[in-house]
Amino acid sequence: MDYQALAELLFPNVTMTPDELEEKFPPRNTPEGAVITRMAPSPTGFVHLGNLVQGLTSERMAHQSGGVLFLRVEDTDAKREVPGAVEVLIDTLKHYGIQFDEGATHDGDAGNYGPYRQRQRADIYHVYAKKLVSEGQAYPCFCTEEQLAAMRETQEANKENTGYYGKYAMWRDRELDEIRAELDAAHPWVLRFRSTGSIANQFKFDDLVKGKLTITENDVDHVLLKSDGIPTYHFAHAVDDHLMRTTHVVRGDEWLPTLPFHIQLFKALGFKLPKYVHIGPLMKMDGTSKRKLSKRKDPELALTFYKAEGFPVKAVYEYIMTILNSNFEDWRRANPDAPAEDFKFSPKKLNPAGSLFDYAKLTDVSKNVISRMDAETVYSLLLEWAQEFDPDFAEKLASDKALAVSVLSIGRGGKKPRKDLAVWKDAKDYMGFFYDEYLTAPTFDEKFDKATIIDVLERFLAKFDISDDSAVWFDKVKALTNEIGFTTDMKAYKADPTAFPGTVADVSTFIRQAVTGKTNSPDLFTVMQILGYDRTVARIRATINNLK
Ligand code: GLU
User: Fold this and answer.
1) Distance in angstroms (rounded) separating the CA atoms of residues 168 and 154
2) Could you count the other beta carbons within 10 Å of the beta carbon of residue 380?
3) Which domain, by its residues, includes 536?
4) Res. 46: pLDDT tops 90
5) Dihedral sign from CA coordinates of 269, 270, 271, 272
């Protein structure tokens, strides 16, 4: 077979050579050890936690080493593409702190190694396709869908491996004339790789996450170019990651089964193999067993979920770090205020079997993150969230910034900051009572009769002075408690609860409920200071009236 003639027959218009491309995209000028890596998502419109895990791993590896992170859009499957998906992807990843140094942007491409959208790279793939054909390493296949289905049926019936290999590779060794006749008849064709591998052979391979792997050679003549001339993932991966000078491929481990083919393909093309970082799946507990997070079953897989719940970006970021590198938590404890980027991230610490996603843990991390923010930051992030997800609350927050900031300052700062908020969604329940429209009427414990509660509230009002400090304020509450025959001695009460009609805690709860509508609230003295004399008194009076 004259492979050169076949190459000309299949790709008459390809005049560029691999050498020219090598020259156009020279090795990068980065320091020794710098990681050049990429995110290469398909623009399906769904950005999920897995993207973030992969993005964060790539981003840390690149930027920690003084390397480059770029965004390549893998849009070869036009059927799956959703309009605007690339923009959503760019914005979402940026929102989560993943900054690309080059690649696809809102305004086209940025960087010298583009185009960064695969559909714009058809000419480039064809240069290498032509090269492989001219070397006898690839050939056209004119099989129809029916023929392929029949082949599969035979293989299944014979209990053989399925696929286009060995004796099943119908177009592997056809004559040039036969191929020409098919082309003349305008029959569609795909370009296949001519595998020289055998499943009888194995070799060792080192993956940065999975460790040492034993790999069986690939013997399937996989498709390189589809009938529309667009490459498959495999071919595009080899060509793009070579020409873009990727040193590390960080991707999901669903690609492990085709890794043998990728290794083979890099070799066939004369490309240096990058290092691979195959990330295991994100899992969750379902009853007593683990399972992969699923797009269909688990709303928490979508990144939009975290935004709507109101998890600060930083919390999601820190949580992902926690599940990727188990020593991150200890580091964070020792360095509570250091930027997360100071942590030395290592892909080797990723669990090869995947990571367990734990919502309760995320909530804890988020509480910690929010508790370490200053009130102004909390205010602006909360307001931003509310503007999108609770406009009415946003209006309240914006109408009196000073009030909101003083509320959000309660218990903040100091060694042990309060952890009242895990997500912005919690905020309305936590502080809504400061706004009269959100104040709800209290439901008092039926154990106490109304007259007692009214008595407590009236006695409190009679002595209430907004200029009291918290010690004096509480002394008055205690005095009142004793006056009505309740006790301030909690020990004695615990020893014999029947000896007292109630305690100072009950008295405080009556007052708290009258002022906030709730049995739980931030520090009551501070709440009153923020509400001021008039509003505090008005609320207590209104409660008394309702009880009468
Ligand atoms: N487009 C592929 C995916 O979304 C990219 C895998 C890779 O990073 O190479 O899974």
Assistant:
1) 10
2) 14
3) 450-547
4) no
5) positive
Provide the sign of the torsion angle of the four alpha carbons 194, 199, 203, 207, taken in this order: positive
What pLDDT score was predicted for residue 345? Answer: 96
Count of structural domains within the chain:
3
pLDDT reported for residue 86: 85
Residue with tokens 């009769």: 449
Residue with tokens 């906030």: 516
**pLDDT score at 43:** 87
* 510 lies in the same domain as 431: no
Ligand 1 contact, 114 CB (< 6 A): no
Using N-to-C axis directions, what is the helix angle for 233-243 and 259-269, rounded to 10°? Answer: 50
Asked if the model's pLDDT at residue 95 lies above 90, the reply is: no
Q: Are the C-beta atoms of residues 320 and 52 closer than 8 Å to each other?
A: yes
- Residue 173's contacts (CB-CB under 8 Å, 6 or more residues apart) are 1
Is residue 253 helix, strand or coil? helix
Question: What predicted TM-score, i.e. pTM, was given to this entire model?
Answer: 0.89
Q: Please report, for the domain that includes residue 536, its CATH number.
A: 1.10.10.350
Establish if 148 belongs to a structural domain: yes
pLDDT confidence of residue 24? 97
DSSP 526: H
41 lines ligand 1 (CB under 6 A): yes
Atom of ligand 1 nearest to the CA of 241: 9
Q: Is 47 in the pocket of ligand 1 (CB under 6 A)?
A: no
Best CA proximity match to 346, nearest among 250, 255, 262: 250
| pLDDT-based confidence at residue 291 (cuts at 50, 70, 90) | very high
